């Protein structure tokens, strides 16, 4: 493990030294190709003016539709593949709307609910099936390409992401990436060790949740991870047909207080010189982050206050201050700070959600509700946190409140696991008819959804409660329907 980590550090040094020196030559080496494509800016040399910034990554699909993009190569720098399979009938419905340019209806069809046509986990699949994207290069934040057998490591990785065996068998190690196909869509999985060389203009897509695992995998701080990734991207000098940056704090994929990293990526794309001359605030934020991570909140608070004197009341600094207050056992001050940020900028309401979830996990639902309720009122697009609060109310015996929040979660995220939570809660209330109704709905929801993401102790207990209920009632077929589902079998062991 230590040898692998040392190898990763060597890769990092190589990128920083070699990559940055090569950037000085980009203007010369690409002058000819740039003349052939004057309309497409060179990433790392030119300032990117038209950057689409989204909270939810799936918003990119509607943008590409409106721009009339066809047959493009997509480089997606992301922790997640976002290419999950969608049933043909849903693709057909989406195609019909696309042909009619029914933009409002297409936007409404973007969700995690059971009736959605696409969402954050599969919008690239939709783009490929609609002819917008012809090939995907997925740049992952994991250090699989720093190992002795990257092909096997990536194949194992794809299995954990739900790629079918037939698809996984198609992948081979070629030119520094692992290349294969997913339902006929060409997919190349690459690491920062060797980004693909692509001559034609590309769609460039960043999901800032990339930095969560990258910093851990490569053993670097936040500022260094920014320099490594952006240095590698700039070194390739892609010509950008379109550029998208998604934060993905919604859903908890990026920590709420790491939002500044997305703002840094956008700044670098607009001002490439910031790669070699980064803003001093970024180093300070990375230092604060390291202190918060190891629990040194006193020192973190001191540095935050000093930084505020130097840089002003920056939102990123105030976000960390809210986190520090919370970790020090000062929830009221944390709430006041986060609430003020939420009122000022609804994209910072996720701070309240993150803190509310932590209070929920400590079985403090009434305190948690104050945080979450304000966030939901100020930013109705937030689709997570409701199940955590429901669990906390259920643990306290406040069953009606639990069901209220489970239903809110279901409305945004679909049947699983919400219906099993609701059934379990009705069972605790002694209402067996309603318990069976929702357990039945849970089984139907599992049939509709080819992917199961939410796996934790709470889900396991709800599934076990459903199995016991059916067995006690003599409904063995329904109990077996849960037990035989391979996607959730690990939750029943």
- Beta-strand level of the residues, as a percent range? 5-15%
Biggest sheet descriptor? 8 strands, mixed
Query: How many β-strand runs?
Result: 8
Please give the alpha-carbon distance between the first and last residues: 30 Å
Put simply, the count of helices is: 24
Cα Rg? 24 Å
Integer count of domains: 2
Mean pLDDT: 93
Overall form: globular
Q: Report the structural category.
A: alpha/beta
Strand arrangement, largest sheet?
A: 1-8-7-2-3-6-5-4
Provide the low-confidence segments as ranges: 1-9, 15-35
Helix content: 55-70%
Keywords, separated by commas or semicolons:
24 helices; 2 domains; disordered N terminus; eight-stranded mixed sheet; 493 residues; alpha/beta
Structure write-up:
With 493 residues, this protein is α/β, with parallel strands linked by helices. The protein folds into 2 domains: 2-278, no CATH class; 415-493. It is 56% helix and 9% strand. The chain is built from 24 helices and 8 strands. It has helices spanning 2-23, 26-29, 31-36, 59-67, 88-99, 103-108, 123-129, 150-160, 165-169, 211-217, 222-236, 259-270, 280-293, 297-311, 315-327, 331-344, 350-361, 365-378, 386-395, 399-413, 418-428, 432-448, 457-472, 476-483; strands spanning 51-54, 72-77, 133-139, 172-174, 177-182, 185-190, 202-207, 240-246. The protein has an 8-stranded mixed beta sheet with strand order 1-8-7-2-3-6-5-4, sandwiched between helices. Helix 4 runs parallel beside helix 7 (123-129), helix 11 (222-236) packs parallel to helix 12 and helix 21 packs across helix 23. The chain is globular and about 65 Å long. The model is unreliable at 1-9 and 15-35 (pLDDT under 50).
């Amino acid at each position: 493990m230590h040898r692998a980590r040392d190898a990763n550090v060597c890769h990092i040094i190589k990128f920083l030294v070699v990559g940055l020196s090569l950037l000085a030559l980009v203007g010369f080496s690409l002058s000819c190709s740039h003349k052939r494509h004057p309309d497409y800016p060179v990433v790392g040399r030119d300032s990117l003016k038209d950057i689409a910034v989204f909270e939810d990554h799936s918003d990119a699909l509607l943008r590409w539709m409106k721009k009339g993009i066809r047959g493009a190569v997509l480089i997606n720098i992301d922790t997640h593949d976002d290419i999950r399979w969608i049933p043909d009938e849903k693709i057909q419905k989406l195609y019909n709307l696309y042909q009619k340019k029914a933009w409002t209806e297409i936007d409404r069809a973007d969700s995690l609910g059971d009736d959605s046509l696409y969402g954050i986990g599969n919008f690239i699949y939709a783009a490929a099936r609609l002819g917008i994207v012809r090939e995907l290069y997925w740049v992952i934040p994991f250090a699989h390409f720093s190992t002795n057998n990257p092909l096997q490591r990536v194949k194992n990785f794809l299995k954990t992401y739900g790629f079918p065996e037939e698809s996984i068998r198609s992948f081979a190690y070629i030119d520094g990436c692992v290349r294969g196909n997913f339902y006929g869509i060409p997919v190349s999985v690459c690491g920062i060790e060797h980004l693909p060389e692509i001559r034609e203009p590309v769609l460039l897509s960043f999901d800032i949740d990339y930095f969560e695992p990258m910093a851990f995998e490569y053993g670097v701080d936040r500022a260094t991870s920014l320099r490594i990734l952006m240095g590698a991207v700039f070194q390739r000098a892609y010509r950008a047909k379109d550029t998208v940056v998604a934060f993905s704090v919604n859903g908890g994929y990026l920590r709420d207080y790491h939002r500044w990293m997305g703002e840094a990526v956008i700044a670098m794309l607009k001002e490439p010189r910031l790669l070699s001359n980064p803003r001093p605030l970024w180093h300070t934020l990375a230092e604060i982050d390291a202190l918060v991570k190891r629990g040194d909140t006193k020192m973190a608070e001191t540095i935050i206050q000093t930084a505020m004197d130097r840089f002003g009341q920056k939102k990123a600094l105030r976000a960390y201050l809210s986190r520090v207050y919370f970790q020090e056992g000062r929830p009221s001050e944390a709430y006041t700070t986060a609430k003020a940020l939420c009122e000022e900028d609804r994209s910072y309401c996720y701070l309240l959600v993150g803190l509310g979830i932590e209070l929920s996990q400590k079985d403090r639902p009434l305190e948690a509700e104050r945080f979450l309720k304000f966030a939901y009122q100020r930013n109705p697009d937030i689709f997570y946190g409701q199940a955590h609060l429901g669990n906390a109310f259920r643990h306290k015996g406040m069953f009606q409140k639990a069901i209220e929040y489970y239903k809110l979660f279901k409305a945004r995220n679909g049947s699983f696991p919400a219906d099993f939570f609701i059934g379990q809660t009705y069972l605790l209330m002694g209402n067996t008819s309603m318990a069976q109704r929702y357990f039945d709905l849970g089984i139907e929801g599992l049939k509709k959804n080819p992917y199961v993401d939410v796996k934790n102790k709470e889900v396991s207990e709800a599934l076990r409660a459903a199995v016991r209920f059916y067995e006690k009632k003599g409904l063995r077929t329904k109990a077996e329907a849960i037990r035989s589902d391979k996607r959730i079998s690990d939750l029943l062991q």
